[in-house]
Amino acid sequence: MMRLTRHIKTIFLSSFIIFASLGFVLIQSGTAMGGNIYYIDPNGNDNTGDGSQGKPWQHLSYACGRVTTPGSTIHINSGNYTDNNRCELAIGVNIQGAGVGSVKITSAYGGGVVTGYIFRQTTPTNPIAAGNNEISGFTLDGSNKTLQTGIFIRGTDRLNLHHLKFQNIKVNALWVEGHYDWANRETNPPPAYGQNVILHDIETNDTTSEADYGAGERLGAIWLGALENAQVYNLTINENYPSRGTGIKAVWGWLKAFKGYSWTINTNTQNTDDFVFEMYNFLGDSEIYNGIFNHAISLNGGPQNMIPGSTWNLKIHDTQTDFSAFSGMPEGALGHELSHNYLDFYNNTITNNKGRGIGLWTTNALTGTSITGWRFRNNIVYSCGGGGIEIYRGALSGVEIYNNVFDTISNAWYGGYGISFETFSGTLTGAKIQNNLIIGAMTAPIYVYNVTNTLIDHNWFYNNGNNNDVKISENGTTVTNNIKGTAPGITGSGKQPDPYYRPAGSSSNLVDAGVNVGLPYVGSAPEIGAYEFQGTPETPPLPPKNLRIR
Question: 3-state SS of 323-377?
Answer without folding.
Answer: CCCCCCCCCCCCCEECCCCCEEEECCEEECCCCCCEEEECCCCCCCCEEEEEEEE
